[in-house]
Amino acid sequence: MYQRIVLSRLTNAVAIRFFKRTAILINETDELPAAIVDETGHLLSIAEAMETLFLNDPASGLTDVLEFADSRRDRLASSLHDMCTGYSRGPEESKYPFANALLRHFTVYGGVRDLIRCDYDTETTKLENFITDCREKPALRAALEALGLTAWIDAIAAANEEFETVHQQRTRNTADAKLPFKMLAKRKEGKECYDDLIDMLDGAGKMARGTGPFAKLAARMNELVDEMTEKEARSEAPATSA
Q1: What is the Cα–Cα distance from 76 to 157, expressed in whole angstroms?
Q2: Which residues are CB-neighbours of 76 under 8 A, at least 6 positions away?
Q3: Contact, 108 vs 143, CB < 8 A?
Q4: What distance in Å separates the CA atoms of residue 69 and residue 54, rounded to the nearest whole number?
Q5: In this predicted model, what pLDDT tens digit does every residue of 75-124 receive, in sequence order?
């Protein structure tokens, strides 16, 4: 009944607007269970905290770009690991040794999760070392060539360099180097709250069996999701100015 927006595709500014407008739509609806009203208040408080962080950030536009760049390098590294895993289990047994060699290389850095789930500076350094090993160690280079994955290392390197360029630019423009982490934490909290709200609304709607305000509210909330999704689809990346 309720569509869910892909929050990871929204810039901070749009995510804040989406949370606030979602809260307004729910608060304008009568006869909702108290638990839903309380959770809506929680979502609104998260949106307001995000807005405070956003307005206090003189490089807020660059924070958005930084988060997109980090997401891109994470996605590429994770996808490379997934492909190596696939080759290690696929029908072509001749590729198993090459895939396993690359998977072992991931474990040197704690596995793909530890490689991409650390602070910005540590991740940048880890990826640089990971890439250097892949390019300079004959066994790893041969494995990448055998599996046709050399271009993926180049793509990860380019994404990592792009991230570091934006990171340095942003650091020059603001004294609060920890702000992106604060915003990411609030975005995560907001996503969890939003998902809980949708689950609660879905459950209450099913219990009501077509009665109450749930069908009308779902239609209005789905319109908002469509509007925000279409707006974000017009641009592949956020602007670099606030």
Answers
A1: 10
A2: 152, 155, 156, 159
A3: no
A4: 18
A5: 999 999 999 999 999 999 999 999 999 999 999 999 998 888 777 788 89
> Rounded to whole angstroms, what are the CA distances from 79 to 46, 74, 86, 173?
31, 8, 10, 32
Question: For residues 23 and 199, what is the distance between their CA atoms, to the nearest angstrom?
Answer: 15
Q: How far is CA 95 from CA 79, 101, 105, 144, 177, in A?
A: 18, 10, 16, 11, 44
What one-character-per-residue DSSP string does 100-162 give?
Answer: HHHHHHHHHTTHHHHHHSS-HHHHHHHHHHHHHHHHH-HHHHHHHHHHT-HHHHHHHHHHHHH
What's the number of CA atoms in the CB half-sphere (13 Å) around residue 101? 19
What is the C-alpha R_g of the chain? Answer: 22
Domains of the chain: 7-57+178-233 (no CATH), 63-173 (1.20.1440)
In whole angstroms, what is the distance from residue 127 CA to residue 131 CA?
Answer: 6
The tokens for 13 are 């500014």
Q: What is the pLDDT of residue 117?
A: 79
239 exposed, middle or buried (CB, 10 Å; 0-12, 13-18, 19+)? exposed
Q: Work out the pLDDT band at 183, boundaries 50, 70, 90.
A: confident
Query: What pTM does this model have?
Result: 0.54
Closest by Cα among 72, 12, 36, 40 to 232:
12
CB 10 within 8 A of CB 19: no
Q: What is the pLDDT of residues 112-148, one digit of tens each?
A: 988 887 777 888 999 999 999 999 999 999 999 999 9
Angle between helices 12-27 and 214-233 (to 10 degrees): 170
